[in-house]
Amino acid sequence: MAALEGPGRAPGEARSGSSTFTRRGVRLYLSLRDRPGTSTEPREARRPPVGRVVVTLGVVSLLTDISSESVASILPLYLTAVVGLSPAAFGLVDGLYQGISALVRVVSGWGSDRTGHPKWVAMAGYGLSFVARIFLLFAGGLAAISSVLAVDRIGKGIRTAPRDAMISAAADPAHLGRAFGVHRSLDTVGAAIGPLLAALILWAIPDGYGTVLVTSLCFAFLGVALLGLLVPSGTGARTPAQAPVPEFRWREVSTPSLRRLLVVAGVLGLLTVGDGFLYLVLLDSTEFDPRWFPVLYVGTNVAYLALAVPLGRLADRVGRTRVLVLGHLALAAAYLCAALPLLGAATAVVTLALLGTFYAATDGVLAAVAGRVVPAHLRASGIATAQTVVVVARMLASVGFGLLWFALGPTVAMLALGAVLAAVVPAALAALGRLDEPAPA
After folding, report:
1. Residue 100 — very low, low, confident or very high, per pLDDT cuts 50/70/90?
2. Is there a contact between 285 and 340 (Cβ–Cβ < 8 Å)?
3. What are the pLDDT digits (tens) for 319-348?
4. What region does 171 belong to: left with phi over 0, alpha with psi -120 to 50, or beta?
5. How far apart are CA 7 and CA 47, in angstroms?
6. Which of 6, 225, 267, 373 could potentially form a cystine with 257 if both were Cys, beta carbons 3.0 to 4.6 Å apart?
């Protein structure tokens, strides 16, 4: 034993030296652990700010939006200029088109939370939209087309909340705004490609609407296939360590923070009309060639694409509710530009840039806020509830603006709406404060 303790050293001295070495090792370990940028967690426990699941879901949305927007981009002009609907009638159709998905959003969010398998709930929504594309090939007349588009919107309502819940579960909570920004950027790429693709097909093939519909169907199929094959089934599901949810309890979802968010988002939604109305006002005030009407959607989506990630990262830094509310000032400015074309030919460009800024500051950020103010196991229900309130409010806004257009004319109606929206923003900012802290699990 003496030999093991080293030559010329008593047993007590050997233990003292070992203890000293151990204390130094502990101090070194603690200093390394506390050093910024150093983590002692296992590598697999640390998540990147934007993971593979978020990117894959973004590509699925990209393909699906190419499918839907290639058809939807011509609807406002078609219904008013070709079918001959009045602005009030178009407001009703546009409101129903936006609001029909609200009927199923909360139900799909509950189903996602209840089963713990949001992927398959989202899969049902994407699949329903794909089936609607098949029937759209054979639909004829306004009633049939409207019915098929309504089914497509129901599919969108089913898939949105579970998809956003998967994004929220897969992303690093500190970079949630960035994750939603990346997803919305990819989603917007598809929304920009869709109208361009439709325009190119129609330029190359006169009356090639059937070709547009077949192309739309192919992209819808690719989106469903990608979701089914590449997104893991357990994405966003409850883990075994979490207690199962035996029944849905609204009081668990309806936290005080969520209720405050719903009130503010609903009021702001009542002052947000559909893009089609804004483009029709722009067309009325600037008198550009109607053949370029579908390109307006592309301009908005390009601005959205460029700003979704930067504004998502800004929301993570300065506060998501702050960016969410202040983004409505860009919408108020877009109303002003569309109604008063003071910049001449550049009016359309500025209007589309402002509208894209509004969407980049609000769309994904709303889901990021709503998903963090409810318990984690009810995330999809919280997101669905917030999105439903906004969709219903915007549906009412479109119907109301159609009547306001009929009574006051497009310019006065748009200016009045913009003035009220600008006046509401400070009160909304004060009412929300900052709801960025997560709810207790």
Report:
1. confident
2. yes
3. 889 999 999 999 999 999 988 877 767 888
4. beta
5. 51
6. 373
Contact 99, 392 (CB under 8 A): yes
The H-or-E segment that residue 80 falls in is none
Taking alpha carbons only, the member of 293, 139, 137, 292 closest to residue 211 is 137
Residue-level pLDDT at 424? 95
User: What's the mean pLDDT when you consider all of the chain?
Assistant: 78
Helix or strand (DSSP H, E) at 108: helix 102-115
CB 40 within 8 A of CB 162: no
Over residues 199-228, mean pLDDT: 85
* Cα distance between residue 45 and residue 115, in whole Å: 25
Cα–Cα distance, 329 to 422 (Å, whole number): 6
Give the pLDDT score at 35. 44
Contact 392, 102 (CB under 8 A): yes
Whose tokens are 């030296």? That residue is: 17
How many Cβ atoms sit within 10 Å of the Cβ of residue 431? 15
pTM of the model as a whole: 0.66
Residue keyed to tokens 């009638």? 89
End-to-end CA distance of the chain: 55
The radius of gyration of the chain's CA atoms, rounded to the nearest angstrom, is: 26
pLDDT digits (tens, 9 = 90+) for 175-204: 888 888 888 888 888 888 988 888 888 788
Q: Are 422 and 431 in contact (CB under 8 A)?
A: no
- Amino acid at the residue 52: R
Residues 201 and 441: their CA atoms lie apart, in Å, by: 51
Kindly report the length of the chain: 441
Locate 24 and state its tokens.
Answer: 């130094």
